[in-house]
Amino acid sequence: MLSPEGLVAATAVLVGLGLLAWCLWARRLELPGDVGEEEEEEEEEGIPFMAEEGWGHCRLLCKPSALAQHLVRSLGRSAVLRGGRWPWPRWPRLQMLWQLLQPPEPEPVVTRELLQLPDAGLVALDWLVGPWEAAGGSGGVSSPVLLLIPNAAGKVTAGLLQLGLRALERGFIPVIFNRRGHNGCPLTTPRLQPFGDPRDLREAVTYLRCRHPSASLLAVSEGSGSGLLLAYLGESGSSSRLAAAACLSPIFRGRNWFEAGMPWLYEWPLLLHLKQGLSRYARSLAEVVDTDRLLGSRSLRELEETLFCRSRSRPSSWECYWERNEPLRDADEVAVPVLCLCSADDPVRGPPAPSLPRELFRSSPYFFLLLTPHGGHCGFPRRGPGRCWAHEAVLEYFRAMAEFLRTEERRKGLPRPRRWGGPPVEPPVFTWQRSYTR
């Protein structure tokens, strides 16, 4: 028996598939592979990774460094970029719908933990512990903790769950970060989390460090949720407590993205998902916002502006809001490696030329762009186990980063903290050595 939310989602998907089929039949769907000459030239920039003929041609754009050389060798040796060929590489909308329709295999077992914040608000941490274990965490004491950040609407997609399950199989400890009021997390204060405000995420990372003091902390975000992760890395700098991070189909320029708008096929389901969650707290939110205007929003921009710029307690202009919430506002301060997996035909992010900050990847030793011609938005489909080659690429990237760090520590004789004898001591905040990135 489907829940009301499930019925709404199923109806939206069926309507979307019907209209998509009509567009394909009428040949009205523009193939994103037919890019202009300027964008084709830009796509040729970077280090190529060749896979099967006609599929999987990726390029890595980054600033030359010892760390970059190690990543190139690791990805080149790995079979990650040589998955089974997807039969419709030039239809990104179909790729994304395929990923959304496929449920995670097997069905995950999740244990929820509520974390109280300094202002009495709550965020939820969902620990993936199965299906192999029904209770308790998996992995050893020092197994790496992988923090999964959903999109800005709080929608935990099947793809994100699938990534968590793949990580669990590899010995990671995966945990999903849910913002205030998202994904069933109770809203105990009339305040939600703005697009690029990392304060709540910082509290969650601090808690994870206390709970797993000897483990490496890693983070991966999906879609528009990357705005939160990138903002956190920029504001925290070398004190982020993360060893490495990755972003799947990130949104780099938040304001431009909201103002341009997404294709309705993606915007309306997210808008309905947000409204359904907010309607549960309409009475509490009425103290700070016009709930009629909020629930009557016809676009994600209108909803965002009503919620955070037209509040009764702290009204703000749209321009001032984005001065505080642009994902890359402090990109120069990022001090841990960040892999961004993007597709040139991403219909949600938009055309590559205006939406990809290529200069950032050319100049910063910490940012790596893995760009593929075809993959859609958070799709990156392939045949065979896993269905998404980007998930395997992210896990291979984390493995390569850990291997590089261990090699550098042995070479330079850096001390490693002991975990036996004497009282437990909290390890120092993790920081990358700048020489690694030169």
List descriptors.
438 residues, 10-stranded mixed beta sheet, alpha/beta
Word description of this protein:
Keywords: Membrane, Phosphoprotein, Secreted, Signal, Transmembrane, Transmembrane helix. This is Protein ABHD15. With 438 residues, this protein is an alpha/beta fold. It is 39% helix and 13% strand. It has 16 helices and 10 strands. Strands 1-2-10-9-8-7-5-6-4-3 form a 10-stranded mixed β-sheet, with helices on both faces. It is globular and about 60 Å long.
Task: Please sum up the structure shown.
Helices cover 39% and strands 13% of the residues.
Order of helices and strands: HHEEHHEEEHEHEHEHHHHHHEHHEH
Helix content: 25-40%
Tell me the β content: 5-15%
Structural class: alpha/beta
CA radius of gyration = 21 Å
Overall pLDDT score:
81
Spatial shape = globular
Largest sheet: 10 strands, mixed
- Alpha-carbon distance between the two ends: 57 Å
Number of strands: 10
Could you name the ranges where pLDDT drops below 50 across 5 or more consecutive residues?
19-43, 52-56, 418-429
The number of helical elements comes to 16
As laid out across the biggest beta sheet, the strand order is 1-2-10-9-8-7-5-6-4-3
Subcellular location: Secreted
Protein name: Protein ABHD15
Keywords: Membrane, Phosphoprotein, Secreted, Signal, Transmembrane, Transmembrane helix
Family: Belongs to the AB hydrolase superfamily. AB hydrolase 4 family.
